[in-house]
C-alpha cells in the first residue's frame, strides 16, 4: 500500500537513532536501499551532513576520482529540500568530513597514486561504509568499490531528505543540514556478472539515451552493458573495413567509432564493462543487404522490416567469410577493451546451409552429420579468431558444445534447466530467462528468479525423479492431464500435469503437482486451492516459467467415467465446457486439458539440479531489453524502476527475498530514480500521453490519462507482440505511439489495492473505505475520459479500453456496495457481477484492467462473509 509504504518509511527513519547494533533481518532489508547491502549495523547517534564538506581521497586515479565527485555532486544538487553546494578536497584525513581510502597494493599512498584501468570480470567490488558522529569513512580494495559505496551514500542522503519532508509536509525553507544515521555497512555482490542488454538494432537508441541508462545501471550497481549492434533489421556500428554495412544497412542510423569510444569511456568511469555483440552466423539479413556474397544463398537482399527469425545465414564454407569476421573482430577490439565478445549464435535457420552445394561438400569432408555439427564447426573457427585477438567468447545457449574451451560464457535464454546443464559440464553461464524486461512482467517474478535457485544441497540424497509406489498403496492416487496452451502467434505450448494425492492416517489429503511444458523436465508447482473432496471444483496451481508466472485454473471433475463423458485416444473428455484458464502474469490464455484414462504410475523426471561444486560457474545474470516495441521515447518506461529489482537479485544475498519489503523500497526507488538520477520514465509517460491528446493536451486531460494508467497495465508475456502480428503491425515501421506504449509496466496503485484486499480477507473491514475512495476516484476520472473520447482523435482501441473501464467502474461500485451493505441490488446478482468481471478478464488485448482479478477476489470474499 502506498500509504503504508510512506508510513513505514517515515517511522523507520524516525526510529533510526534508537536502533542500537540492529542488523538486517533474515529476509528483509531494514534500510531504504536497493540493492540491499550484505550487512548493516545501525548505531546510536547522527552525522550532520552539511552543504559543504571536506573530502579526503587516497588511492584513486585522477580520472575516476573526478568522475566520482562530479557524479555525486550532480546527484546531490538535485535534492528537493537540502541545498547541497560542493565537496572541498583536502590533503589530510584529519581535516576531512568524508574520507575515502582505496587499499590498493599496486597504488602508491599518494592521494592520486593509482593508475586508471577499465573494469573487468572478477574485480573486487566490495566496500565498507562507516558513518560515525564526526566522519563518513569509505574503505575499499578497488576504485569500483568506491563507486558502489558512494551510490549507497547518495541513497541514504536522499532518504534523509525525503524523511524531513514527510515529517513536515509544509516545509518551505531550504535545509542546510541533514541527519544521517550512524551505521556500518559491509557489502559485496553475490554475482560477478550483473548486466543489461540493450538492442539498438530493431529501434535505434541515441547515444544520450544510452548514457542515461548507464547512469541508472551504475546506481543499481550493475556492471555489464551488453550492446546488441547488428541483427536482421540493421547494422548499427561504423565499419572501416566494410563500410557498406553502415552505409547500406542502417538507414543512416549507426554509431561512429568516436561515439562508441565515448560510450565505452563513459561506462568505464562508472565501473561498467561494455560487451559488444557481433551476431553471427544467423540474424544476417542486414549483412546480406550490404555483402550478399557472404551469405549461403547468393542473391540480392532488401532491408528486413518485419520482426521474427529469417533465412539469411553466413556461408560457413567460404574462407572469405572468416576473413570478414576476423576483420570485424579486429575493429571491435580497437573500440571495446573488454576481454569478452558476444557472438550471438542463436536462432540459426539451417535451410540455406542445407541447400548450398559447397556447404554440403564441407559437411561430407569434415564428417559433419547435421546442421548442429556445422554450427559447432563455425563456432570453433570463430573461437580461434577471438583467441588470436585475446578475446573470450560469449554466446547464447545454441553455441554450447563439449569441444569448446571451458573459458567461454554461455548466456541462457532457455532457462535454469539449460544453465545448470552447462554449469554441471564445467562451463560458465549467465541467466537471462526471467529477466526479459522488454516483456511486461511483475517485479515479483523477476525478484524470485535467482540464477542459483535449483541447487542440489545434498547430492547423495537428491531426487532426479518422483517415483510413485507401484504396489498396493491405496492411500496414494495419481491423475494426469495433457495440456495445450494455444498462443496468438506460433505453435501452441504443450504440457503434462500430474497430480498426486496422498491420504494420511487422519484422512487428510496432501496434494502435490508436477508440470512439464514442451521439452522441459517436470517441475513441482505450488497448489493454491487444495481439494478436500472429490466433487468437481477448480484446482489452482502456479509455476514461474520462461513465459512468466503461470497461474492455472483447472476444472477438477470426479475421476470416473459417466454417461456425460466420452473416451478419445485414451483420454477422458467431458461433453460440457470446462472452466479451464491460464494466466501468464496478467494476461489470459485459453487452456485445453484432457485427463488421461487410468494413467499407470510412472517416474516423473525432474529438472536437473546444479551441483554445489559447480555453483562457481554461474557468473550471474543479464536483463535483456529487445526493442521490437521499445524506442527512444519509452526506453526508460520499460527499464525503470524495475531494473533495480533485478539488480538487487544479482547483488544481494538470496535470503533477502521479502516481496512486501521489496515493493516498499521500490516505491522509494521510483522517486529516487526520477529526482536524483534523472531517469525519464515519468517524463516519457507524460510526454507520450500529451502527444496522444494532440490539441487537447491540457494538464487536466494529461492527469486523467496518468490516473487511468494506474488502473491499466500492458498485457504480459509476448501478448502485445502476437496481437500486433495478427494486425499486421509487427514490423519496424509500425507506430509505437498509443496509450499502451507509455504505460508503466506495473502499477503501484494495484499493489496498494492488493494489500487492501488481502487485509480485508484477514478480517480488517476498515480498509473497505479505502477501496471505496479508489472506486470513487476512478469514476470521477471517467467523466474526463469520456470527454476526451469525444474531443480527441485517439485510436479506436484506446476508445474501447475507456469504455471497458467505465463498465468495470460500475461493476466495482456494485461489489463495494455489496460488501458494505451485505445485500446485492436485485439487478446485479453475484453470478452476473462475477460474469461481468470474467468476460473482461478473458479478453486478449494489448492492455488489461489490472484491478479485475482483485475485485473478483473481493466479491467472493464478501459473498462468503455475508453468508
Automatic annotation (TrEMBL):
GO terms for molecular function: beta-N-acetylhexosaminidase activity. Its EC number is 3.2.1.52. It comes from the Bacteria. SUPFAM superfamilies: (Trans)glycosidases (SSF51445), beta-N-acetylhexosaminidase-like domain (SSF55545). One of its GO terms (cellular component) is membrane. Residues 33-156 form the Beta-hexosaminidase eukaryotic type N-terminal domain. It holds the Pfam family Glycohydro_20b2. Keywords: Glycoprotein, Glycosidase, Hydrolase. GO terms for biological process: carbohydrate metabolic process; glycosaminoglycan metabolic process. The active site is at residue 347. Residues 191-453, 609-653 form the Glycoside hydrolase family 20 catalytic domain. Belongs to the glycosyl hydrolase 20 family. This is Hexosaminidase. It comes from Paraglaciecola arctica BSs20135. The lineage of its organism: Bacteria, Pseudomonadati, Pseudomonadota, Gammaproteobacteria, Alteromonadales.
